[in-house]
Structures are given as structure tokens and as C-alpha cells.
Amino acid sequence: MVTFCTIIWCPALAWCTICCTTFMMWLSTSVWVPSMISVALLVSASSAGGRGRPLLRGGAGIRTGIIGKKHVGPETVYPFDFAYTEENGSVLQVGRNITRIKLLVQKFLQTQDDRPFFLYVAFHDPHRCGHSQPQYGAFCEKFGNGESGMGRIPDWTPQIYDPQDVQVPYFVPDTPAARADLAAQYTTIGRMDQGIGLVLQELRGAGVLNDTLVIFTSDNGVPFPSGRTNLYWPGTAEPLLVSSPEHPQRWGQASEAYVSLLDLTPTILDWFSIPYPSYAIFGLKTVQLTGRSLLPALEAEPLWTTVFGSQSHHEVTMSYPMRSVYHQNFHLVHNLHFKMPFPVDQDFYVSPTFQDLLNRSTAGRPTGWYKDLHRYYYRERWELYDRGRDPRETQNLAADPRYAQVLGLLQTQLAKWQWETHDPWVCAPDGVLEEKLSPQCRPLHNEL
After folding, report:
1. Integer CA distances (angstroms), 421 to 111, 287, 424, in order
2. What cofactors does this protein use (predicted)?
3. How does DSSP assign 7-48, residue by residue?
4. SS3 99
5. H-helix or E-strand containing 407?
6. Which of 110, 111, 65, 66 is nearest to 91 (CA)?
7. Residue 440 and residue 321: Cα distance in Å, rounded?
8. pTM of this prediction?
9. What is the pLDDT of residues 389-413, one digit of tens each?
């Protein structure tokens, strides 16, 4: 639907964001927060004939809108001129009802306002809902499908997938329960896909599609084992399509450059020709953008081969800080709480896939999985993978003396990034950060 002027990143990485709240905070500020799923459609439009000149925040001359999942607050800190989210309505209606979403986009575009606009459309469809609205299925795949008690979404033609026909990713157990879970998700993704088509039709109908930068992405990895809340590949690899009417030289091409969702805010500011404001948090260090604009990559393939990742907690009871760096083919993960079992979030815990995995594991039955629960829960402090030879990340090379130089290089890169971004976990787990002392990392003598 957007291939007329699109560049596709293979892969785009949600480094620094594998959960939803943090993604929205970064999108609004581009400030790295040592953390917190929807797939989001970002729409940023120029005024007719050129890019907007005037800040997305307070008096920048940009009209802002959000439809769907917001998942961040308070509203006074993250305000929008036009907002229909879970704060003032049903998340099912604003995040999954594609007819409702279409009409809200239409309402936004029909507002008499000559300012350039930024519209954030956050579909909730990739999320699980078995923990909150189980009557609609594990992924709310039944919501609005026309069956008894499910309601009907007029613009949606449901696509039903046979669990026996779905392709099972390597990180998902190949069992009937997991196959049915995947099939349910694919149905909801199909609803979102049709919804994106409706949004683009509204842009076309309003006469602004050819003046609009469209960005399609997701805010974290797939909600299956090794996915969301993990820093493994399935938890950080994201879809990213960028459609720019001003960069025809790369239309229809795929990019292999490593990019981060932290790059979205600099990209949008660059599109509007808006400088990032100079300010400090709590009167201390001046805030610096930690991403870079993607617009140059729409002109020529850049040599971007390094990205960083962060996860600290998802739910309040899920503290498990991790940091990672991806450089060329190598991927390094630092598990700071490596002596603790990896936590599992509530919505994934009740999922058909995980419940089946638990039942099979406790009964000693085959799981059809590439790992076992012990390896999933209990991880080494350092995990080093050569994804060129081991794309499934199953062979940890951190203790292999043949890779000592690679390990040291990536550890140095990761520490440098943590210091640059003022990561409070930079000295963990065997030290504590004391910024007024020298050296700032003070030993804990905790036998780690």
C-alpha cells in the first residue's frame, strides 16, 4: 500500500525499546530512558509545496494528533492538539476498530487548520488481550468479526488462517496451541493492515498524501517467547517502512543499515526543519538527542553498523535490567541480574503458547521449542552471538577465548554508550554509581 515511494529497512531494530511505554516517551522527547505494543503508523505532513518551517512541542507551528494507544502520561507532559486514546475512550474502539480509526483520521484532516501536521496512529492489534478482554480471543481477533456478541467493524473483511498452514518462527514452539496462537495474531494483523489502507485513503482524499512523510513501525518485538521484553533478535527486530515523496531515488529499495526507533524523533524534526531544543533535566546535564535523522538514508545507503539496546523492567515486578550492542554480525547482551530468573509479564503468562509450554515442560513432554525453560529463565551475565553463523543466537561465545577480542571491543562500545546516555546502571552489577566521587564506579565486593 505504500510501496509507491517506500524504503524498507531489513532489519529495523527497536534497540532501546522493547516495551510500549518507553517507545512513546522516546517518540515525544527522543530522550533515552533506561526503561518500559502496538504497531504504530506515524504520519508527518509538510505544508503544500515544502517542509514545515516552524517545534512539535509548544508553539512550533505544528498541529499534532494521536489516535489509538497512547500509554504514557500525564497528559500535561505529553499533550496533543487532537487526541482520541484510552485516556478518553475505549482502547478497543480507538485502537482496533478500523472504521472508527478511519473516521477519526478524517476528522483530523478536515479540521480547518493550515499548519503542517504530525499525526500518530497507534493500532493496538499486535497486542495480546487474553488477559484483559478474553471474550474476544487471545489477540482480540474476534472483536468486530460479525459473530454473535462480537460486534461488526464495517470496513473489515476478516482473514482466517488455518493453524496447520502458518509458518512457525524458530523461537515459537511448534505445537498446536502455539500455531493457533499465531493464526489468531495473523488475523488481527490483517485487520490492522486493512486499517492502514483506510488511513492512506484518507490522506489521499484530503489531497495531502504526496506531501506527507509516512513512517510505519512497531514499538517492540512480537509477544512470544524470546520476543517482547527480551533483547534477543525476536524482541528487538521491528518492521520499518518509510515513504517520502521527496526522496524518489530510493523508492522501492531495502536498506541493510542498522537503525533504531530513537532515530524517529530526529527524522521528524529534520523533516520539519526544526532544531532540537536545548534544555536540562532537573537542572543538571543538557539533554542530547541519542538518535539520528533517517532522511540521509533515503538518498544513499549509509554505513550504519552499530546500534544499542536497553531493557530494565516491563511491569513493576519485572526488574531485569539488560543492555546490548549490535555491531556488524555480532550481538552482545549484558544481563545485569543474571543470577535471577528472567521474569514473565502477565499478558504473556496467560497466553495459549506459554501455558502450553509450561504444561509440556512440567509433564516432561516434547515442547517443540528451540530452548528449555531453564535456559530461558537463567542466563549468563554476558551473551555474545555471531549472528552471521548463528542467526538463532543459540551458541554463547562470551567464554570462548577465540572471541575475547570481539567481546572486549563490544564491552567497550557498550560502556561508552552507557556513559554518554547517563545510564544509572553503568556500574552494575558489581559496582554502584557515585557521580561526585572519582572514580565514579565504586566497588560493591559482592562476588560478581
Report:
1. 40, 9, 9
2. Ca(2+)
3. EEESSEE-TT-SSHHHHHHHHHH---------EEEEEEEPBT
4. helix
5. helix 404-420
6. 66
7. 20
8. 0.89
9. 999 999 999 999 999 999 999 999 9
Ordered by where they begin, the domains of the chain are: 3-300 (3.40.720.10)
Count the neighbouring beta carbons within 10 Å of the beta carbon of residue 357. Answer: 24
Distance, CA of 214 to CA of 228 (rounded, Å): 25
pLDDT of residue 35: 28
Find out whether 231 and 322 touch, Cβ atoms under 8 Å: yes
Answer yes or no: is pLDDT of 36 > 70: no
Return all residues near 419 (Cβ < 8 A) that are at least 6 apart: 426
CA distance 277 to 280: 10
DSSP 8-state class, residue 278: P
Q: What is the DSSP track for 54-98? A: --TTTTSS-EEEEEE------TTTS--SEEEETTTS-HHHHHT-H
Tens of pLDDT, residues 45-98:
443 333 322 245 556 788 999 999 887 777 777 888 999 999 999 999 999 999
Q: Mean pLDDT in the chain?
A: 87
The number of angstroms, rounded, from the C-alpha of 319 to the middle of its chain's C-alpha atoms is: 19
